[in-house]
Structure formats: structure tokens, C-alpha cells
Design a protein that fits this description.
The complex is a heterodimer of chains A (334) and B (241). Chain A is mainly alpha-helical and 334 residues long. Helix content of chain A is 76%, strand content 1%. Chain B has one domain: Rossmann fold (3-Layer(aba) Sandwich), CATH 3.40.50. Classes of the chains: A mainly alpha (334), B alpha/beta (241). Bound molecules: adenosine-5'-triphosphate (ATP) and magnesium ion (MG).
Chain lengths: 334, 241
């Protein structure tokens, strides 16, 4: 009898047809507007603390978006975001120390290192399923951490203090400049994630998330797609780490490879929603702002506890995050 | 017309100590309708998994379009024109019915207008009205049709239908049979794995029967129906159900 209802139901037209080019134009305009707004703010707001805080929040957006390419689109939960973030941060620190390199050289270098590391990790671990993949990503953090601890040139456990080169005069100061760079990284990351989502690549990811076997038999090169997800995600995460030493003039393994950051990278997309690019932004802005406000009043251990509790709450009650909740509510009302 | 387009040579597949398949040799000609029957667990799905590449045979070779494909990844074989549907439907949930068909079309370069092609295929199986629906929300019959439509989107040369009619009513079976017949008339070779006897008998040009991974009969439907060995292992078992 179900078959009969299906024959009688009138056909709604395929939804996706509403001029994707037009939407992409709007997206590009918004992206440019965000960058322009950032530049205007650096000229108009005098208090540098604003940019110290804003840098962290924008960094969270880039981190969440980078993580989501592998964790959300491909469905492989990566507990080792800091392995890539740290690799990028130390690539930046190394290039700055050795060559006094500009941040604009450190970014592509970090992306290359992160992409390469992602490929390597993917190649070695993607064939193992589920929980073993997660364990392998944790192991990668431990390996990177240990590596840095044992390289004296990078300062080992006690960290590395470096003087970044003078920022361009028009930016108004180092922190304003680094904030703008981070904003550029975040916009680039989101644009990249959006492209994946609306293109055949994203469709391939959704197919393999539903059934890897069926996707493969439909002509989707599943292994190569997952490998690309590892590389793209790794490149974005590492690029996000690269400006750190320019921002703080100091870098140490404990923070860079720390639990707080790794946990945040997972929590933000989960809170916002893993399925589409606005999700990680929403999660990052929410969690990032709360944490910025909270770190003044509470300890960092308490902070981790807070994130943990929120994370468990969402996993249990709203696995598709805030966007998923909104979706359910909207459907319920119809 | 005489050269086989799909050829299995002495293929074996073991899972640990269990030999699920073979050694077995089977061939399929262009445009042929081949029925595959056999009791539960006789290795039918394992055979087609070896054909499509989901499983790598423990021994033996698989040839498709004159090329040795034994070690070729499933997605490469799919793009060459070897399509299958799954015994338990595996829709791409989280996307629309139309998008399900765009997935295979994304990876073919000779399709001018993928959306038009997808709609055409959906119409041919009677799913055009469902194009915009979430694939996870379909009925059993619609899921079966989606399996077929997704397999057909890229104009395959061979379609392997693994129990495409399981769980359907008699009228729905006729519906699916008609789709497969039309498809075959357009030149596509069809391998039909099926427990529903009257459907395989009516559809197939030739039938093979498996038992515990071995080929025990290969012939015209009438000959198979009257084969004492087949009656013993297959119909005997069916009768007990
Ligand atoms: N991945 C696997 N691992 C271990 N054993 C398997 C696997 N796949 C199939 N088998 C075993 O191989 C044998 C053949 O299974 P297969 O699924 O090919 O049978 P079938 O003829 O398709 O049966 P049915 O009519 O029930 O679909 C069975 O004994 C089954 O338990
Ligand atoms: Mg089977």
C-alpha cells in the first residue's frame, strides 16, 4: 500500500536547481565584505585586546572548518587536529628563526607540510576502520609532540621565543596584521569547504558516508577521495597554525599539541553541525566567544571540562548540531 | 555476439577456512540474460562480489570487455560499464533520489547533461515523481527501483541484479521484470540472481545453479527446471520452506 501512495504523491521539482552560480556570487561578495570589514576594524578600533581575542575566534573558525573536511564530510573523526596545527606552527617558527621568513612564505610552506602529513596519515590509516583510525590520529599527535621535544633548534620543551618581522605599516600593528592574515586563512578555508560541499567531491563524500561499498560500485574512487580529504584537512589545519608565532612571539609544545585545542577542533563542528560549512563557523564563534569570556574568570582545566560536557551533551542529544536542530524544528512545523 | 564480455575463470573465494565459492568458471555474452539460482549461502553474492571487485578472488581470473580486471578496483570496473544493484538496498541517504543518480554520472566524461540523463533514467523506472525526495524515505519497491536506476544511470554494458525483487508483491515483481526486459532489449546484458523461481525462469535465456560455491548446472531454463540435481538441492530446499 505504500507503493500506491508513492504513485499518487505529486512530484516537487528537484530542489537544487536554484541558480548555484548566483549563490556562489553572493558567497564571494560576502567573503570579500568580511575581509574588508576586518581591514576597516583594524583602522578604527584602537584597543589591541580586541584583536588578540578576535584572532583566537577567527583561528577557531579556520580550525573547525579544516577539521570538518575530514571529520564531517568524509566522516573520519580525527582526534589529532593538533598534530597538523602544531606541524604548521613549528613550520612557521622554523622558517622565521632560520630565515626571518615573512608570514606569507610560512603559510604555503605550512600547507605543504600539513598536506603531506595528511597524505601520509591517510595512506597508513584509512584502511583501518572506525576506532582504530581515531587511535592512529592520537598517536600522530604524540609522535609530533615527541619529535619537537627532541629538536633543540625548535626550543624543545621550554619553547621558542622569536621576534617576528615588522608588519606592513598600514595595518596599524603586529596583532592587527596577524588578525587580518588569520581572517584571510579562515575565509579561504570556508571557501574551500563550500566548494567541496557543492561540487562532485562533496557528493562523493556523502555517497561514501552512506555506503562505501555502494559508492565504490557506482564509480566513486573512495580511497582517493578520502586521501584527498586527509590532505586538504591537514593543509588547512597546518596553515591555521602557521601564524601563531607571529601572533604570540612565543611557541611551546604544551599549548600547540595540547588537549584543549584538539578537543575544540572536534567540539566546534559538532556543536554547529558537521554537514555543511556554516556549522563549524557557528560552533567556532559560539564556543570561541564563550571561552574568550571564560578564560578571564576560570582556569584552563575547567575550560576543558566545560567543552567536554557540552560535547557529550551534543553527541547524545543533537548529533547534527545546532543546524541539525534547526532543520528538525523546521520540518516538524511543516 | 559470440565472444563473452564477462568471463570468470577458475575463480575461488575463501573466508578463512570456509570456501564460499569455486573453483568456478562462467561466461556471459553481450546482450545475454543469465539467471543465477542456488540455495541460501551457496555463493551467489560472493560470485558477483568477485565480478564487481568488492572482493578479490583467492584464485582465478575475471575478464571484462576482453581485459583482465581481477585486480582492478570496483570503481574502475563500474566506469567500464559493469553495474550492480545490492541484495539489501544501499541508497545514498542524506541526498535526493536525483542526486543518487548524479553520483555515478559525476565520474563519467561522456555524459553531456547529467541531470537530464538522471531524470530520463528515473522516468524509465517510474521514479520521476520522487526525484526531489530524500532517498532514505522511500518505500521498499522504490528502494529496489532506485538501486536499478543508479546502476543504469551510466549506461552500463552489464547489469547484475542481486535479488532485485526480494520482498516485493507479485504486481511489483512484474513491474521490476518489465524494467529489466526493456533494459535488455536495449542491448544490456543482465545477470539476475533470484530466489523467485517463476521470475528467473520467465526472464532468463540461460540459468546456472550454484550449490556450496560450485556450479552444479548450466543450461536453458527448461533443462534447469527438470535437472534432477537442481531439483534435489534447490527445489527440495525450497519445498521445505
Ligand atoms: N564477508 C564474509 N565473511 C565470511 N563469510 C562470508 C562472507 N560473505 C559471505 N560469507 C559466507 O559465504 C557463503 C556464501 O555466501 P553468499 O552471500 O555468497 O550466499 P548467497 O548465495 O548470496 O546467499 P543468499 O541467497 O542468502 O543471498 C555463506 O556461507 C556466507 O556465510
Ligand atoms: Mg546473496
Amino acid at each position: 500500500m505504500t507503493a500506491k501512495t508513492s504513485l499518487m504523491t505529486a512530484a516537487p521539482p528537484p530542489a537544487a536547481a536554484r541558480a548555484p552560480e548566483a549563490r556562489t556570487l553572493v558567497f564571494c561578495a560576502c567573503a570579500l565584505a568580511v575581509l574588508a570589514l576586518g581591514a576597516v576594524l583594524t583602522q578604527t578600533i584602537a584597543n589591541p585586546y580586541v584583536f588578540f581575542a578576535a584572532f583566537i575566534i577567527v583561528q577557531q573558525v579556520a580550525l573547525a572548518t579544516g577539521w570538518n573536511v575530514l571529520g564531517g564530510y568524509a566522516g573520519y573523526i580525527n582526534f589529532g587536529a593538533t598534530a597538523f596545527y602544531g606541524a604548521g606552527a613549528y613550520t612557521g617558527a622554523f622558517l622565521l628563526k632560520a630565515y626571518g621568513a615573512s608570514i606569507f612564505l610560512c603559510l604555503p610552506a605550512a600547507a605543504l607540510v600539513g598536506g603531506g602529513l595528511g597524505l601520509l596519515m591517510g595512506y597508513m590509516t584509512l584502511r583501518v576502520q572506525g576506532v582504530y583510525f581515531a587511535i592512529a590520529t592520537i598517536a600522530l599527535v604524540v609522535m609530533m609532540h615527541t619529535l619537537v621535544l627532541n629538536i633543540d633548534y625548535l626550543g624543545g620543551a621550554s619553547g621558542l621565543a622569536l621576534m617576528p618581522p615588522e608588519p606592513p605599516a598600514w595595518t596599524g600593528g603586529q596583532v592587527q596584521f596577524v588578525f587580518l592574515v588569520m581572517l584571510g586563512i579562515a575565509v579561504l578555508a570556508v571557501a574551500c569547504a563550500r566548494w567541496i560541499e557543492i561540487s562532485w567531491v562533496g557528493r562523493g563524500f556523502r555517497a561514501l558516508r552512506a555506503s562505501e561499498e555502494a559508492a565504490e560500485c557506482a564509480g566513486v574512487p573512495t580511497f582517493r577521495l578520502k586521501l584527498s580529504a586527509c590532505a586538504i584537512s591537514g593543509a588547512i589545519l597546518a596553515m591555521t597554525g602557521a601564524p601563531l608565532v607571529f601572533y604570540a612571539s612565543f611557541i611551546e609544545p604544551e599549548t600547540v599539541f595540547g588537549l584543549a585545542l584538539a578537543l575544540n577542533a572536534i567540539a566546534m563542528p559538532l556543536i554547529g553541525g558537521k554537514k555543511s560549512w556554516p556549522g563549524p563557523i557557528i560552533g567556532a564563534v559560539l564556543l570561541g566567544s564563550v571561552q574568550q569570556a571564560a578564560t578571564i574568570t576560570i582556569s584552563s582545566e575547567l575550560n576543558i571540562l566545560l567543552v567536554g560536557v557540552v560535547l557529550i551533551g551534543f553527541v547524545a542529544a543533537a548529533p547534527d548540531g545546532i543546524l541539525g536542530l534547526v532543520d528538525t524544528l523546521r520540518k516538524g512545523r511543516q | 555476439m559470440s565472444d563473452p564480455i564477462l568471463l570468470v575463470e577458475n575463480v575461488e573465494k575463501s573466508f578463512g577456512a570456509l570456501r564460499a565459492l569455486g573453483p568456478i568458471s562462467v561466461s556471459l555474452k553481450a546482450g545475454e540474460r543469465l539467471g543465477v539460482i542456488g540455495p541460501n549461502g551457496s555463493g551467489k553474492t560472493t560470485l558477483i562480489n568477485c565480478l564487481t571487485g568488492t572482493l578479490t578472488p583467492s584464485a582465478g581470473e575475471v575478464w571484462f570487455l576482453g581485459r583482465k580486471v581481477t585486480d582492478l578496483a570496483p570503481h574502475r570496473r563500474a566506469r567500464m560499464g559493469l553495474a550492480r544493484s545490492f541484495q539489501i538496498p544501499k541508497p545514498f541517504t542524506g541526498m535526493s533520489v536525483l542526486e543518487n543518480l548524479l553520483v555515478p554520472l559525476d565520474h563519467l566524461h561522456d555524459v553531456a547533461d547529467p541531470r537530464a540523463r538522471a531524470m530520463e533514467v528515473l522516468a524509465s523506472v517510474g521514479l520521476a515523481g520522487r526525484a526531489g525526495h530524500e532517498a532514505g524515505g522511500l518505500t521498499q519497491l522504490e528502494l529496489r527501483k532506485l538501486e536499478l536506476a543508479r546502476a543504469l544511470a551510466g549506461r552500463p554494458k552489464v547489469l547484475i541484479a542481486d535479488e532485485a525483487m526480494a520482498g516485493l508483491s507479485d504486481r511489483e515483481i512484474d513491474d521490476v521484470l518489465a524494467i529489466l526486459e526493456r533494459l535488455n532489449e536495449s542491448g544490456v546484458a543482465v545477470i539476475m540472481i533470484e530466489h523467485i523461481m517463476h521470475a528467473v525462469m520467465r526472464f532468463s535465456h540461460r540459468i546456472i545453479c550454484l550449490e556450496t560455491g560450485r556450479l552444479i548446472a548450466d543450461g536453458l531454463p527448461d533443462a534447469i527446471a527438470n535437472d534432477p540435481l537442481v531439483q534435489k538441492v534447490y527445489f527440495g530446499e525450497q519445498a521445505r520452506h
